[in-house]
Structure formats: structure tokens, C-alpha cells
Write a structure and sequence with these properties.
Structural class: mainly alpha
Radius of gyration: 21 Å
Distance between the termini: 18 Å
Order of helices and strands: HHHHHHHHHHH
Strand content: under 5%
Amino acid sequence: MNISGFLGFGWIPVVYAVVLGFGIFYSTGWVRWLIYACFVIVVLYMAFRFKTYSRQPWRSVHYRGMKIYAGLAGHEFDLAKKEKREFDITVPCRILAEKLFGQQHAADFVADELLADTGRKSYLMKLAKDYRNVFLENVRPEKHTAVLDSIRQDLEASELGPDIVIAKAVEKSYGREEAARYLLALLLGQVK
């Protein structure tokens, strides 16, 4: 089980904390204090990772969506290879929408043409326009126009991927502003 998608840190810090905890219990003298200091550092690291991870609610939706998408894309890739055709990215994206939203909402998602280039780009542009404060936070006023132009160019150059489905899932779970934060993280390359 991979816990990093839920907590922001993996099993390695947990194992370190447990081993160091036993070390504190079974050691004496200055060694105990050294192990205790290492234990505190590991626990602080875990707390920091959890705090920063849970502060951004879109991360859990992104993690779950990408995990599902990876399996779907692998299956579509194998099927395309077997049938000697090009990989069709809309297939795993459509199935991802079904898995994240259910049958009816996925049909609405496809009907809104969010898997088509124009529908996807207009949704992302509207998100950036409606929540420009998310994109312009900590940006000097004289740089606002340049930043917004850069965002517009990046969105125009973007191609279809699972990000649109995940952005809609974030919007459904946490609202449009959180979806805008997710889009910002995508544009800045902060999404793992």
C-alpha cells in the first residue's frame, strides 16, 4: 500500500520513526539523546510533509486520478499496439471520467466537449480568468499582464491529458477556486 498519496510521505520515514523509537527505548546515555534527536527530526519532517500536503486538497484527487489513469493508459497502449493503431488518449480520459464521476456525470463531461480541444481550452481559460487572483498572488502589479499572457499561451499550447478530468474532479470535490490552484500547480510543474 502506498501511503504517500494520502499523507504526503511514504513508508521510509515511518520505518525510520519506528526504528528510532525502539532505539530510544533500548539505548542509554548520550546515544539515547542522539537517537532521540534523530527521531524528532524524522517526526518533524513527517509533520511538515503532512501539513503541506493536506493544505492543498487537490493533491489527493490528483494522486487518485493519476493512479487510475496510469492503469487505463497502459491498457489502451497495449490494446493499440495489439491492434496496430495509434494510442488514443481520449479513451483512457473518458474511462477516467466514468471512474471519477460515475456514468451520468461522465456523459455530461463528454457532452460538454471537455475532451475536445476547444471545450478543454475554453474551460481552462475561463478558470484562469475567473480566478486570476490565484495566478497573480505574490506577483508584482507591473508583471500581471505578462503572467496572464504567459498563462494564456501555455493553455493554448497544451494538449489533451488526464489533467482536464482531474481538474473537473477537483472542482466537483472542492470548488472552482481549488481547481484553479490545481491548474496553477500544473502550469508551474509542481504536480508529481
